[in-house]
Amino acid sequence: MKAIIINEFGTSDVLTFIDCPKPTISEGEVLIRTTHTSVNFADIKNRTGNKAKANFPMVLGLDVAGVIEEVFNDSSGFQKGDQVIAFPKNGAYAEFVVAKEQLVFKIPSGVPIEKVAAVPTVLFLSYMLTHQIAAIGQQDAVLIHAASGGVGTMLVQMAKRLGAKQIIGTVSNLEKAPIVYQLGADHVLTYDQFSTNVNELTKGQGVDIVYDSIAGAITEESLTCLAPYGTLVQFGNSGGRAGNIKTADLHNSCRNIKGFSLGTTRALKPELLQQVAQDIFSLVNEDSFQVPIAKIFALEEMKKAHEFMESRQHQGKILIKI
């Protein structure tokens, strides 16, 4: 089969297109013939060694859409030919992948695989963030960082659907603003003095919820525009630096900070994903729910796909068609 591997950490040049044996499955696993995978920022961090442990050769990638090729025995909840999305156990950049059944989700009839293929990671994540980790109410003003990216475009739509009182998005440059407005944001800002602008837009009250995947100085500044009793959800560090938080910034104002990782949830509590899967598919099946695709690459073009992700010029998901 064809696959992309890395034999060392480094730049996009370490991504190598190879032929390798098809993987085998064990009890409780299925073999999936991949039709699509996607590029997530975690892939960049894993490739550069900022997240993954060295275990070479390594296949990167978090999610796939495809077709069940093989089940282990007749007791499986799947059968050959089922269309699914999944979180593979050993990477996703390959023609065939192995996944544990509890991390495989059968695509209902009528749901377009091309649409759902772009969203396994970002839609599960954004749904759980907005419905469970920091549930959005109709009186809430919400700030969404990296609003034009894969997760951000989902979060904006979630906030709109849940009736948030005010939706503010941040982007690296205002050329990315149109897509954020189109998906439902009331205001789009750059990161330059964003907290001052947020406080002005909220008439000095601040926002009730901040969704932050950047960390570092963005997290620190976000606290200066978070309302009393507000919640900051920290679910990534694409900025590359941890933010420093003072305990006095929390207890004096009754604010709180929550952390969330979809990767940790997949590993420790996969049943939580099963509980929301049908809601995910229902959303994707709605014509009004948009899945912005920044660009589609072939598997052998993975180097270009990673470079596009790192350029931070993309709006929406980067999809790989296999």
Automatic annotation (TrEMBL):
<keyword id="KW-0521">NADP</keyword>
<dbReference type="Pfam" id="PF00107">
    <property type="entry name" value="ADH_zinc_N"/>
</dbReference>
<dbReference type="Pfam" id="PF08240">
    <property type="entry name" value="ADH_N"/>
</dbReference>
<dbReference type="InterPro" id="IPR013154">
    <property type="entry name" value="ADH-like_N"/>
</dbReference>
<dbReference type="InterPro" id="IPR013149">
    <property type="entry name" value="ADH-like_C"/>
</dbReference>
<feature type="domain" description="Enoyl reductase (ER)">
    <location>
        <begin position="10"/>
        <end position="320"/>
    </location>
</feature>
<dbReference type="InterPro" id="IPR011032">
    <property type="entry name" value="GroES-like_sf"/>
</dbReference>
<protein>
    <submittedName>
        <fullName>Zinc-binding dehydrogenase</fullName>
    </submittedName>
</protein>
<dbReference type="InterPro" id="IPR020843">
    <property type="entry name" value="ER"/>
</dbReference>
<keyword id="KW-0560">Oxidoreductase</keyword>
<dbReference type="InterPro" id="IPR036291">
    <property type="entry name" value="NAD(P)-bd_dom_sf"/>
</dbReference>
